[in-house]
Specification:
single chain, 219 residues, mainly alpha, MetI-like fold, 9 helices, membrane
């Protein structure tokens, strides 16, 4: 990267910073909303009545088997045909959160099934309700079990956020492409954008390590 790139990077700093902020916002919101929905999906898959399990199983299998790009386009274009008009930002978050929830739901299901059933029965025996059992007995153990895979899912959401440029969301990739169209420095700016995405995912990985240390069982 020569001084010409540094000069162009300084000129383009405002749109790139705005794009980075949009990418972080989209990733954070989709991860948080998708994780919350995924917990309920996992609970339904594990403890729901049979008809509920069938419905939720169909949901997770369908969403996990659908490309993220298709979900993004459907959220923006298909929903508008039935009277649900979402802006590009809202449609993008909806698509990514739904995709995230299906993966988190499977992680939660696997983590809950890993816990011996005797612990649930013991919690019932001492009078705990199911919300209390999940909060104090099942949840902490499932968190430790699912956390490494959740970090990978969160990182995938950051990568998937680049697809929102196709519906006009001004995230980092779209802003980078706009700068490249003006400067013709494709290699340099794509490399710089890749570095920024790496920083975001590295931050997610460090956060996961922090939570893992805080929730670890003392030896």
């Amino acid at each position: 990267m020569d001084f010409g790139f540094i000069d162009q990077l300084w000129v383009a700093r405002i749109p790139l910073l705005k794009g980075l902020g949009v990418s972080i916002s989209i990733s954070l919101l989709s991860i948080v909303v998708g994780t919350v929905l995924g917990v309920f999906v996992g609970l339904a898959l594990t403890y729901g009545y049979r008809p509920v399990k069938w419905l939720v199983r169909g949901y997770t299998d369908f969403i996990r088997g659908t490309p993220v790009l298709v979900l993004v386009l459907a959220s923006y274009y298909v929903l508008s045909t039935v009277g649900i008009d979402l802006g590009p930002f809202q449609a993008g978050i909806l698509a990514l959160a739904v995709f995230c929830s299906s993966h988190v739901g499977e992680l939660v299901r696997g983590a809950l099934q890993w816990i011996p059933k005797g612990q649930t029965e013991a919690a019932k025996a001492i009078g705990l309700t199911f919300p209390q059992t999940f909060a104090y007995v099942l949840g902490p153990q499932a968190l430790r079990q699912a956390l490494p895979a959740w970090v990978n899912t969160a990182a995938e959401m950051v990568k998937a956020s680049t697809l929102l440029s196709i519906i006009g969301v001004g995230e980092l990739l779209l802003r980078t492409q706009e700068v490249i169209s003006r400067t013709f420095m494709s290699l340099e700016f794509y490399f710089f954008a890749g570095f920024l995405y790496f920083v975001i995912n590295y931050g997610i990985e460090r956060f996961g390590r922090y939570v893992e240390r805080k929730t670890a069982v003392p030896s």
